[in-house]
Design goal:
Layout (H helix, E strand, L loop, with lengths): L34 E3 L6 E7 L4 H19 L4 E7 L5 H14 L4 H10 L1 H4 L5 H11 L4 H8 L2 H16 L7 E4 L2 E2 L6 H13 L5
Parallel strand pairs: 2-3
Antiparallel strand pairs: 1-3, 2-4, 4-5
Protein name: DsbA family protein
Organism: Brevundimonas nasdae
């Protein structure tokens, strides 16, 4: 697999970067192409903007998100809307997203988890091609299929639109979290995020 296949689009970096409307909060409603964990009628919505090559995103995914899932998402109290962003190296960041999308909605979060756990190898190591191929193979995605996924013009264009929407929501770095439309400006520790969710739950009528 030639290295240039890990450069899906230079435009991904620039999507929405000029003239983007910066808003105070993110919409709570899921977009049609969002990836979602949890029940649609959960009383609180948590939106996470993340990048597959973002170190703090990997730490959040490994150290914080599993407990948030146990306490809130799996319990039906919180719905997580996961939205993609691009950080450096942009070519690898995009390739990771496109691989996860390629795996399909049912396995998307499994692939994201694998990418986050293996980030030091595939995103920051010296051989991203082989490392990403190994992750793809774990999910039954062949080299040819991976090549097709990360060079698909329609998939790239869709990713660019999602990045543009993120910038329109005021996102310029990752991870960025919103609870009930309010951006969290604290350290994204388990304690801080849980406190914000608990506050939102206390203010939301429970069924």
């Amino acid at each position: 697999m030639p290295h240039d296949l890990f450069t899906p689009s230079r435009r991904v970096l620039m999507a929405g970067g000029v003239g983007a409307l910066i808003t105070a909060c993110a919409p709570r409603a899921a977009e049609a192409d969002d990836m979602v964990l949890g029940q649609a009628d959960a009383p609180v919505t948590l939106i996470e903007y993340a990048s597959t090559t973002c170190g703090p995103c990997a730490r959040f995914a490994i150290e914080v998100l599993p407990e948030l899932r146990r306490r809130y998402i799996d319990a039906g109290r919180v719905r997580l809307i996961y939205r993609e962003f691009i950080t450096g190296p942009a070519n690898l960041s995009a390739a990771g997203v496109l691989l996860a999308r390629c795996a399909g909605e049912d396995r998307y979060f499994e692939v994201i988890d694998a990418l986050m756990h293996g980030q030091s190898e595939w995103a920051n190591g010296g051989g991203p091609r082989d490392a990403l191929l190994r992750i793809a193979a774990r999910f039954g995605i062949s080299e040819a299929r991976l090549q097709s996924c990360i060079t698909d013009p329609e998939a790239i264009a869709a990713l660019e639109r999602r990045v543009a929407r993120a910038r329109d929501a005021g996102v310029n770095g990752t991870p960025t979290l919103f609870v009930q439309g309010r951006r969290l400006d604290t350290a994204l520790t388990l304690e801080a995020v849980s406190a914000s969710i608990d506050q939102a739950l206390s203010q939301t009528p429970q069924s």
